[in-house]
Amino acid sequence: MTGELAGLRVAVTRSRDRAGALAAALAAAGAEPVLVPLIDFEVGDNHLLGASLNRLRAGEYAWLVISSITTVRALKQWCEAEGTVLAELVPPGTRVATIGPTSVAVLAAEGIHAELAPVDVQSAAGLVALWPGFPADDGGPDRGGNARVLLPQSNLAEPTLADGLAAKGWTPETVTAYRTVDYPADPAFRLTAALAHSRPEPGSGSYPLLTPAEAAGEVRAGAVNAVVLASGSAARRVAATLSPLPESCLVVAIGQPTRAEAERLGLRIAATAEHPTPAGIVAALAAAVQQSAPSTTGEMK
Q1: In the predicted model, is pLDDT for residue 1 greater than 50?
Q2: Which of 11, 39, 41, 231 lies in disulfide reach of 191, CB 3.0 to 4.6 Å?
Q3: Are the C-beta atoms of residues 282 and 5 closer than 8 Å to each other?
Q4: For residues 180 and 39, is the Cβ–Cβ distance under 8 A?
């Protein structure tokens, strides 16, 4: 096996239908991905969400903020149930913002142009830092007029976005688009909508799938060399189901908010991805392996 992560057995804390791109990137770098789904997603309150989306469609909001790719899935699932498509929800006068280039590409594949997204700090805080004050002095259709911003999000979303926009003079309206739950979700409510931007990875169904109990046993036995945390919710579930992790097990966070939550829970973070993408996670893990080489090389090769 060759590659910068050769010989590394890596636990990916995502379900099979959401882990393909990351698992494939790890495998391409020589690692052996194992899937340990810990969190899942269910639809939110469809009545409240539908009311908000109908107001969006009627042009009542100046901005729509998409704060995660899972939000796109939740909105798309609502649209499919209603016999419509995402692009029809956003009228010409409404602007769209999101949290990074990956989300911009996901939305573009669904026919939605996002015109505001951070590149360096791809998070809620990064988007707030870019957000114009109200009234917006940028020539946009909301200049001096509509201050309403629709923010569909997880039931566990931090108030960073809503508070940040309000501090800049806007009127954010939050609605629960989806619920983050322990894996597995109730089949009757699970988010199942497939995104146009997603493409099945060759062999994505071949990666081993472990229950949390099985993964905990392998972590304690030293058979798992690294764990990838893709969200604060995943960090909480890792702390609850896999801890304590041995010092030789490298924990990588997808971004600073996930790192902060993991450290609050007492998890030791070996590296944080500079960008919240499969390539960014691979690069962070490779850096962690390099840094820990004197103490772990013998175990990983």
Answers
A1: no
A2: 41
A3: yes
A4: yes
What phi and psi values does residue 295 have, to the nearest 5 degrees?
-100, -15
Other beta carbons within 10 Å of 134:
20
pTM for this one? 0.86
Query: Which of these, 40, 23, 28, 100, lies nearest to 255 by C-alpha position?
Result: 100
Cβ neighbours of residue 194 closer than 8 Å, sequence gap 6 or more:
none
Over residues 203-232, the pLDDT tens digits come to 456 899 999 999 999 999 999 999 999 999
| Residue 58: Cβ-neighbour burial (10 angstroms; 0-12, 13-18, 19+) | exposed
Nearest to 245 by CA among 213, 268, 262: 268
Each residue's pLDDT tens digit, 253-300:
999 989 999 999 999 999 999 988 899 999 999 999 999 876 444 444
**Does residue 127 contact residue 161 with C-beta atoms inside 8 Å?**
yes
Question: Please, what is the angle between helix 16-28 and helix 278-300, to 10°?
Answer: 60
3-class SS letters over 18-67: HHHHHHHHHHHCCCEEEECCCEEEEECCHHHHHHHHHHHHCCCCCEEEEC
Query: Does the pLDDT value for residue 140 go beyond 80?
Result: no
DSSP output for 82-120: HT--GGGGS-TT-EEEESSHHHHHHHHHTT----B--SS
Tokens of 99: 């949290």
For the residues of 249-267, what is the DSSP string, one character each? SEEEESSHHHHHHHHHTTP
What is the residue type of 136? A
**How many angstroms separate the CA atoms of 131 and 108, rounded?**
20
| Kind of pairing between the strands at 250-253 and 271-272 | parallel
Q: Are 162 and 19 in contact (CB under 8 A)?
A: no
Alpha-carbon distances of 271 from 79, 223, 285, rounded to whole Å: 38, 20, 7
